[in-house]
Design brief:
The protein has 172 residues and is an alpha/beta fold. Helix content is 27%, strand content 34%. The chain contains 4 helices and 9 strands. The chain has a 5-stranded parallel sheet, with helices on both faces. It has a two-stranded antiparallel sheet with strand order 1-2. α2 (30-46) crosses α3. It catalyses: AMP + diphosphate = 5-phospho-alpha-D-ribose 1-diphosphate + adenine. Belongs to the purine/pyrimidine phosphoribosyltransferase family.
Length: 172
């Protein structure tokens, strides 16, 4: 099955000049979604990325991260924007193209020494994934790798990430 054929291109979203890779068409295709998660699981296992927890970033990382965690028999931990989690949090602020943003995770979600795999739908410049990595490492977790459905190679996001294995299924 060709995953690229299930990903829709939306020109000029969210602003002119951006070509948005829309995964909602992949999500709505039952056979495509099953194939995607099965392939993702297989590639993560082949890369020997054994993790106690899969960490997914808001919001599309929740979808793929939770499905992958189920397949790997790992726990799933959501990383969210500020003010979305109800208990005490660890947080990290990171730079964006214009300004800053912040990510949070519950303080009791991860324990020091936990093996963590970070998952999202897409890596572009790598800013959010790099900030998530810093957050889990700040807690004292062992980052075993990253998993992405889509990688935009021209944006060189890998160079902004720690030196751990990276699995991506589709490259543009």
């Amino acid at each position: 099955m060709d995953l690229k054929s299930l990903i829709r291109d939306i020109p000029d979203f969210p602003k002119p000049g951006i070509l948005f890779r829309d995964i909602t068409t992949l999500l709505s295709d039952p056979q495509g979604l099953r194939y995607c998660i099965d392939l993702f699981t297989q590639r993560i296992i082949e890369a020997d990325l054994k993790a106690e927890y899969v960490v997914g970033m808001e919001s599309r990382g929740f979808i793929f991260g939770s499905l992958l965690a189920y397949q790997l028999e790992s726990g799933f931990i959501p990383v969210r924007k500020p003010g979305k989690l109800p208990a005490a949090v660890h947080s990290i602020e990171y730079a964006l193209e214009y300004g800053t943003d912040c990510l949070e995770v519950h303080q009791d979600a991860l324990q020091v020494g936990s093996r963590v795999l970070i998952v999202d739908d897409l890596i572009a410049t790598g800013g959010t994934a790099a900030a998530t990595a810093k957050l889990v490492q700040k807690i004292g977790c062992q980052l075993v790798g990253f998993g992405f459905i889509i990688e935009l190679r021209d944006l060189n996001g890998r160079k902004n990430l720690p030196d751990v294995p990276i699995v991506s299924l589709v490259e543009y």
